[in-house]
Design brief:
Blueprint lengths: L1 H14 L8 E17 L6 E2 L1 E13 L5 E17 L4 H4 L5 E12 L1 E5 L10 E17 L5 E3 L2 E13 L3 E10 L4 E3 L6 E13 L2
Antiparallel strand pairs: 1-3, 1-12, 2-4, 3-4, 4-5, 4-6, 5-7, 6-7, 7-9, 8-11, 9-10, 10-12, 11-12
Protein name: PorT family protein
Pfam families: OMP_b-brl_2 (PF13568)
Keywords: Signal
Length: 206
């Protein structure tokens, strides 16, 4: 949580800088789907990917002439995985089988962004962009699987790219590697997992 508030303070400082008047600030709604899994430290059980979704508000600040900027926002995102706990006696003996472990997060990304803005007018119709940086997530809910315990939040590193269409619509694809554990089992020490998430998102910026 300390990292979360430090990053949020840095973001506010950037957006409040004296030269912000020279930058283009836009915001708008975002909807997306994802494919996620949980990467455990040891391969003791079979783990399958599951589909999830995200929704929220995105902000983008781009400095004209440079193409560099920052994008952030606040999102709801559902991640998780299908865990075959019944494949091991330690859990099957307690009645656990194939369990869907869903994690519900409130996410704030803080990503550096570069957008190609000098293409002789073509950028008014289509402009590619790339981005990357940390994403901070606060756990707001999860599946009730008694064999597991959950971290209160996580930090991930995200890289991605996309296209801006007609200056308002943005379609992006990204991959996020969880840097800290998201959940762990109660019975085995150090059997913990980190999130791995692929996101496809559509945003409309005013």
């Amino acid at each position: 949580m300390k990292r979360f508030f430090v990053a949020l303070t840095v973001l506010i400082a950037i957006l409040s800088a004296p030269n912000k008047a020279d930058a283009e600030l836009r915001y708008g709604p975002m909807l997306g789907v994802n494919m996620s899994t949980l990467k455990f430290k040891q391969s003791l059980i079979e783990v399958n990917k599951v589909c999830g979704m995200s929704a929220g508000v995105t902000t983008e600040v781009i400095f004209p002439g440079l193409g560099f900027g920052i994008n952030s926002g606040i999102y709801y995102e559902m991640r998780g995985a299908k865990l075959h706990l019944g494949g091991k006696l330690i859990w099957s003996s307690q009645g656990f089988g194939t369990e869907r472990s869903y994690l519900h997060y409130l996410e704030i990304p803080i990503h550096l962004r570069f957008k190609w803005t000098r293409m002789s007018g073509i950028e008014d119709y289509v402009a590619p962009f790339v981005f990357g940086g940390p994403s901070f997530s606060l756990l707001i809910g999860h599946s009730h699987i008694k064999a597991l315990e959950y971290a209160n939040g996580e930090m991930g590193l995200t890289v991605g790219g996309g296209l801006e269409i007609m200056r308002n619509w943005q379609v992006s694809y990204s991959f996020t590697w969880g840097m800290v554990y998201a959940e762990q089992t109660k019975l085995l020490d150090h059997f913990s997992a980190k999130n791995r998430t692929m996101d496809l998102r559509v945003t409309y910026l005013f």
